[in-house]
Design brief:
Blueprint: E1 7-11, H1 15-27, E2 31-35, H2 38-47, E3 52-56, H3 64-73, E4 80-84, H4 89-97, E5 102-105, H5 110-130, E6 132-135, E7 138-141, E8 146-149, E9 152-154, H6 158-163, H7 166-173, H8 180-190
Parallel strand pairs: 1-2, 1-3, 3-4, 4-5
Antiparallel strand pairs: 6-7, 7-8, 8-9
Helix pairs in contact: 2-3
Length: 192
């Protein structure tokens, strides 16, 4: 991966497991940030872009499942691998329902961990591609909530961005053009 290394967030409170995870991922070419409790993991997850997160379920301060739920509530869609000693079916189901994308039970083989992280990283790349819509010279970033035309940002109010959502871009693909000024008139008319 070289200078273009993808970033992984590891949220793990056990020092030995954390070091092994970090070493394994770095050896495989990932850049790794480590958080040793749920609060730190939540803060890092909200402050930076990661291709994958690994989250231990039983963390001090904020439980791993709550970390995932809060990140999802903030719109963070980073693929998440839950790593836990809790391996019963009900435990895994709770993890997936909390927003986890994969679940690995401790103890685990590092080859399997790496294969799962690589697979989630591939999914992450797909998610990023699907959040950018392009029609001609119009670009819409669904996560960043920005719109550009001819490389210049078009400043939109939140309601205007919502109106220019994916369905509107689909209409634009059918060569129907509605100007931003016309959209502003529509928004102003709805506010009455």
């Amino acid at each position: 991966m070289g200078g273009n290394a993808q970033r992984v967030l590891v949220i793990e409170d056990d020092p030995d497991t954390a070091q092994q995870l970090v070493d394994c991922l770095r050896t495989s070419g990932y850049k790794v940030d480590l958080a040793s409790d749920g609060d730190k993991g939540l803060a890092l997850g909200l402050s930076a872009d990661y291709v994958v997160m690994t989250v231990d379920r039983m963390l001090p301060r904020v439980d791993g499942l709550e970390v995932i739920q809060r990140l999802r509530e903030h719109g963070i869609v980073t693929p998440t691998l839950i790593i836990s000693a809790l391996g019963e079916v009900d435990d895994r189901v709770r993890g997936w329902r909390a927003g986890g994308d994969d679940y690995l039970v401790k103890p685990f083989a590092f080859a399997e961990l790496l294969a799962r992280v690589d697979a989630l990283a591939r999914c992450s790349a797909t998610v990023v591609k699907e959040t950018m819509l392009r029609v001609g010279d119009l670009e819409m970033d669904l996560l960043g909530r920005t719109v550009h035309r001819h490389g210049r940002e078009i400043e939109l109010l939140p309601k205007e961005f919502q109106l220019l959502g994916p369905s509107e871009v689909s209409v634009a693909r059918a060569h129907v053009h509605v100007s931003v000024a016309e959209r502003r008139k529509r928004v102003a008319g709805r506010g009455r």
